[in-house]
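User: Here's a structure from my thesis project, written as structure tokens. My advisor, Dr. K., wants to see whether a designed sequence matches the one we expressed. Can you design one independently, without my sequence as a hint?
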């Protein structure tokens, strides 16, 4: 029994004192899917509002990033975060991660307001400014931020164009 205790003690000491290397292994692969959203060309916020209209039925805020090619075709989209009935929280790194990994230069931000009111809050405007500034440092363009309400949508590019300059 004493031998087992000593062996466990030695293993614990080794685990504590040995340096650990953490490695990130990112794999990108194509998967053929039948999806009505990908590969569509986005020319206006109406297109985004139509494609993501289903968000109006969500009971929690859902934040999606659409990653576009330089020709504004949808390459992919990602649900970055799901929040509560009136807020969602994330970091700029989480929002821009997929665009950086896939080397895509254009994104559109989308989220819903479960209240049904598509008017942007002060927090929405400030967060969009923060993401836009971070994206510029990475040579990524935030094309728009579209908020989906029950019977309407708001394009921050149309209502707050200064954010996107």
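Assistant: Designed independently from the structure alone:
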């Amino acid at each position: 029994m004493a031998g087992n205790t000593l062996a466990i003690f030695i293993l614990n000491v080794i685990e504590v004192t040995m340096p650990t290397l953490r490695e990130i292994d990112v794999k990108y692969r194509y998967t053929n899917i039948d999806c009505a959203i990908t590969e569509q060309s986005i020319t206006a916020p109406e297109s985004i509002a139509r494609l993501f209209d289903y968000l109006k039925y969500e009971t929690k805020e859902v934040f999606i990033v659409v990653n576009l090619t330089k020709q504004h075709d949808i390459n992919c989209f990602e649900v970055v975060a799901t929040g509560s009935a009136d807020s969602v929280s994330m970091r700029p790194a989480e929002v821009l991660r997929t665009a950086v990994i896939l080397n895509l230069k254009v994104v559109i931000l989308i989220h819903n307001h479960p209240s049904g009111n598509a008017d942007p809050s002060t927090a929405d405007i400030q967060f969009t400014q923060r993401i836009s500034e971070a994206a510029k440092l990475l040579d990524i363009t935030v094309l728009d931020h579209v908020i989906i309400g029950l019977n309407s949508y708001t394009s921050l590019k149309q209502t707050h164009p200064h954010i996107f300059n």
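When you compare it with your expressed construct, this may help: The beta strands are 62-68, 74-82, 106-112, 141-148, 153-155.
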